[in-house]
Each structure stands twice: as C-alpha cells, then as structure tokens.
Amino acid sequence: MTPTPSRLRPQQSGFTLVELMVALALSMILAIAILNMQLKLGQQRMRTSDIAVRDGETRAAMDLMTQDASGTGFLLGNMTAPCSALLTYDDATTGKYFVHHEIDAVPAASGATLPFSTTLSLNYPPVGTASDVLVITGSTDASNFNDAVAPMIHGTANIAYTPTSTGDLPLDPSHVPTTGHVAIVQTTDTNTSGFPPVSKMFCMRVPLTSTPGSNAWHSGGTLMPPTFYAGFGTQMAAAGFAGPMSDAVLYNANLVDIGDPTVVTPTPTQTTTVFYVANVAGIAAAGNVPVLMRAQYSLLNDAQVLAPQQIAAGVVSLQVRFNVGKGVYKDAATVTSTKVWDNVCSVRVAVVTRSLYDDPDSSYVWTPTPLTPGTATAVKPASAQTWATGSVPFTDVPVATAFQHRRFLLQQTDLPMRNWQLAKGVTC
Known about the structure:
Layout: H1 17-69, E1 86-89, E2 97-100, E3 103-107, E4 132-139, E5 152-154, H2 163-166, E6 168-170, E7 182-191, E8 198-207, E9 210-213, E10 216-218, H3 233-238, H4 247-251, E11 254-259, E12 270-284, E13 287-298, E14 304-313, E15 315-323, E16 329-330, H5 332-337, E17 346-354, E18 374-375, E19 378-379, E20 397-398, E21 408-416, H6 418-424
Parallel strand pairs: 1-8
Antiparallel strand pairs: 1-2, 3-4, 4-12, 5-11, 6-10, 7-8, 7-11, 9-10, 12-13, 13-14, 15-16, 15-17, 17-21, 18-19, 19-20
C-alpha cells in the first residue's frame, strides 16, 4: 500500500541538546581565553608604558645633568688658572660656610637644610636609604671674564692694609670694580694634597661694599664672615691648603667682579644647580612619591633663581661617585678627606627608580635582573659595574616590604669634566 502524503514525515537535521551544550562550553572556554589574553596584554601594556615613561624621564634627567655639568670650570678661575675650590659664606643660611667645587655632592638627610639655601629643606630619604644631593657650580658662559665688562684686578703688596682683620683688600687703582657687586678673589697657597706639596689656587666669594682708600676695597655684610678673610681659614684647611689665612696670601691675589647680586632678570650666568630627591604628595593614590628635583641658585648671593622642578617621578636613590683617576671612584666625603678634588676627571651618577603603582599582576614580586642587579630585598647598583681597588662603590638600595610588588629600574651615567681636564691636564 502506498502511503498517503499526510503520513510522510520529512527528514529533519540539527544539533542535539548535548551538541549545543558542548558548543556552548567550548565557546565559553574560548571567550575566557581571549579575555585572559586581553587582560595579560593590558597588563603588559601598562607595565611597558610605566617602564618606558620612567626610563625616558630618567634619561632626560641625566641629559640635563650632563648639560649643566658642561658649564662648569669657567667660573672657577677661567680655563687658564682654575681654582681648586671656591669658599663661600652666607650668614643667612644654616651652614653659613660652603666649599664649592665645579661638581660636588652633599649626603642627603631628611630634615637637613642645604648650606647655600634658606628655602630648601630636604624631606628625603627615609632612614636606611642612601641618596645624595648633586651640586653643580658653574657659568652658562664666559662673559664674566671679559675685561671690559668685569675687570680682573691684581692685588698689590701694601702693608698699610690688613685685609684679614678689617676686610680691606689692596688693589691696583687702575681698574675700578663696582661697589655693591660681588667678586671672586683668586689667590694661591701651598696645597698639602700633592707629594711634594705644590702651590694651587683657591677662590673666595666676597661682596664689594665700599672703597676705604684709593687702592683698596672693603668687604663686609652677610656674605662676609665677621672675621673677614680670616674667617675662611677653616674651609681653606679643609680644602687641603696649608694656611693659615694671612695678608701675605692675599696681597698678590686677583679679583674678578662677577656681577650685581640684585639683578635676577635675566638669570645670573653664575649659578649653583642642585639635583635631589624629595617626597611629593598627590602624584599617586598611594600617597607620597619620591621625585627627582632640580633647583638653581645664584652664586652671587644664594638667591633662588629657579624654583624646584619635578623632572623624574619614582626616583628612590640618587648616588654620586667621583673618578679620581684609573677608574677609582670615591664619594664626596672621601675625596675631601684625601684632598684629591684636583684629580677628579669624571663623575658617576646612579639613579634607582620604582614604579608608582603595584604591578598589574598581583602575583608579581620584585625580582632583580642583570641590568638591575640585587636581591629580593635590595637593588645593588654597585654590582652593575667593576670597581677598581680603593673605590667606594654605590650603596645598596633597600626594597621595603610595602613596595615588593613594584618594579625597580637602575640607570647610570658618567659626566665627563672636560673643562676641568683641559685646564688641569687631568686624564681618567
């Protein structure tokens, strides 16, 4: 019997419930894998961006240090007669006395006030972290050695004046500096750092306050010690000079008028530039963040001419070492105690930074790398280079427990003292 059309069932095709459930499960697995990959890629982008930003900021900061260092050597006695040290005094500052070299470093201590500043008090580093204040003294140009603008005046042996007790300095009357200006007195004395001891030049910053005689100038006021030139005696000895300060030391001195301290516009060409680390609030939600800062002061009277500027965020340590020859690096305190500032031919700077936030991967814990050596609890900048015998290597930078989920970066650079080397014949 032939079936009627009403009894025919069409052939049906499709997925069973089991097949649909399997497909759905596979789709969910694939979606989870894609989302996880996107999350990882997002974390990697954030990590790469953070590293790139910190690397770029630190490199820019080091370029700025190099640029500032290139202007050193002019002020400290010109290229032909460089001073071994510049002695300054400022009654308004906490330290009062300060010895400037073309490039120097002061150990950073939270709560300390820099000796050449009445406005800058350090709030970094915390106890246990080493950091320095890099101090660069120099001139942006050599215009202060143009005799037509700022004459160099030679002292004369005139026993009628006693400059160490009255502040009067006998000068050649054929040149007339300007009352109210600031000058650099250049003179020489036996320096005990060499063997045998040799005669070297040192400088003193003094104000030109009056003219007591036809061939003498008086120095007084807040930029001159109460005991006048004799007040520089302690600094003189610390800088390696035999001393004591005497009229005989001053009689054949040179004097260079370097400008009017009341003129701040345009910015003085003779400056003290400082790089230091400060705790700055409000950069990250976690609270205060260490930031590398740059500030500038007039060498004429220590007035601030460039307010502190933030130049690199996340910097936890700035350390400075001085190459005194043959790859032997010393810290500033050792260079001073061994009296070898004249031998400095380059400066090694190490900057350690950390990310501003915890790593996006919550399981990440700080791990040292060949470029940023250390341990789980410290970054070790000293391990990133070879140190010659007698060196004072960089100090370890501790990684606090609260920051073990951050990433740390170490960068180093050498600042060559070309002007210093050219003037003194020093080679690394």
